[in-house]
Amino acid sequence: MNFPWKVILRASLIGTLYALAAPVYIVLGAVRLNRLFEAFVTIRSGCLTCIHCGHDNVLNRLATCNRCRATEYGSLLYCSFCGQVSRYLPCGGCGVTLRVLPGAGAK
Amino acid sequence: MNLSRSFFRLFRREHSRRAADEERRSAGAPARAAEAVIEAALNSLGGSSAIPIGTTDSGRVLSVDHSTLVSSGLVVGATGAGKSRFLVGLILQLLERLASGVEIELVDPKYETYDLLSLALAALWLKTSPWKRDELSSRIRVIDWARDWITPSAPFERVSADVSDAYLARLRADVVVQANARDYTDAMRHGYFMLGRLLIEKQFPMNLRFVTKLFRDEPFRRRISSGIADPDVREYFRDLDRNLPKQTSEGLLRRIQEDFSFPEIRYSEGIPPAALRKLVPTGAPAIVLGNYSSRMSLPQSKAIERANHRIVDVLLKAPRRSQLRPGLLLLEESPVLLSRSSELIDPLTTAARTLRSVGMGIVHLAQDFSNALPADLVRTLVLNSRWTAMFRVREDAELIYPHVLWLDEPQKAMPESVKRKVFAKTMEGLPQRRFYFHAKGYPALPATSLEVQDFAQSAGVSSDDELREIFSREIASRWVIPTSLAARLIAEWEAEVIDRAEVAPSSPKAGGKRPHKSLSDLLRDLGKDEEAPE
Fold first, then answer.
1. Nearest Cβ partner for A78 among B3, B8, B20
2. Cβ-contact B102, B95 below 8 angstroms
3. Does the global pTM surpass 0.80?
4. Which of B466, B483, B500 is a domain's end point?
């Protein structure tokens, strides 16, 4: 039985690559976690101030789900009937789209 | 996304609770916002020199900056709603609080406001220190008339060098023609206009004997017209028989005769301007009280005519007035005045637009403002008014409706048409002294006008009649003259101008007319006649 040089080589190579990429993943993960944290802080505060017009958008109010059309008292970003989570919110003052949760297309 | 979903699921109940709280808070927010707007309006309306005009529902004094109040405004309300008392309160506050002084002109064709203000001024006179009473009296000018005494006026006196005789004559003719209950043909109106130009040029008063002689006596007419500088007027009267048909001039004479059959008119307008200048005290009064009511002793049309003559005087002098003292022309029962003289509408609307620049405002008081005047005039006056005080009204509620704040939540949720009806009902049932005040740029504020005190009680006299007597004796007597004096002055003028010995007509040539010896002689004589100066 031959010594598994190839396996060891592949594993060490992958390990090296992971070790090299780890800082990048760590940074990306930290950034993403930070964004999530900021979003959750905003959601917990219950108010999102528009950066364009300064209008205070209340997040917890009587809202209708865009997908299932259910109306309930709760968060504007979440429907407890269908589980839909919205990442964006139209500003009540100027109508501009405001990002709340990070996700695809978010900047 | 799962992390987010888990998060929301975790805090679902709390989000629901906070959403329900937010909903409850926002339900009360509009009322709080409206209260804040009212509070801000009350603070801002006062400005640097606040004049109190009423109290709000919250018990605060509704004070308005004097610069707003001396601008053009509207006071609208039904009979007995409190307009006149509001106006009297406003005038007294302005006189009391404006250290720089204010010039107020009241034109009252129904006597009530004049009477109320005369009581207030008599009470003020009584409360003033004895050594200051004379000064107070000199600052109040009174225009009134009765059978035994009158305030003399001279409608055909030149107002200013800037105003042409023709324009003044035209305004006077239009006021007379439109106020008169009898019809004037176009030729009659033109005859009156030309007569006005002659009277202004010569500085003569309107006098029936003078006009009769002018129309019927050709030598007299030639003598009068020879001294007229304006060639247009001179030629018109030289050739009067051709310019004014006999029937027209007789019709015009009949109308003038009818007008001058009332002693109040004959004596007040008959005094020549030169004599009048010696009679009337000089100096600008702070307030001019004009009573133009007929008081059932002479035709209403004549009272309105005199009021309109006065408005013409004020409007013509307004552009040349001092800007240092704000001025206010108060027109009681404005539709009564304007509906009788549509020619006044144009100068009045122009004045409403332009007099701001000379610190003067016109305040119209009316009962049924929207219906009593033409719609375009109502629109012009509303657009050019800086403030409106609306008492109990019906149709006029529409003028102020867009500026009303709705504090009651159920009413706020009503459809627009229902809200209009509710507001109209509210305005129809407003109690006395209650009104909505709207200044441009502010919401309409509900308030109650200041209570006008009992003047007799405050002055320490037994009755209002005693105050009236004091007003007549101490204040009005400076500006009125007995009719006997007026009659003497008129007689003197007539003796000087009308009864003056005529210049003897040129004597016929010695030997009389030479008989024509031939046809050429006859033609030569005819030619001379044609070329002879008139």
1. B8
2. yes
3. no
4. B483
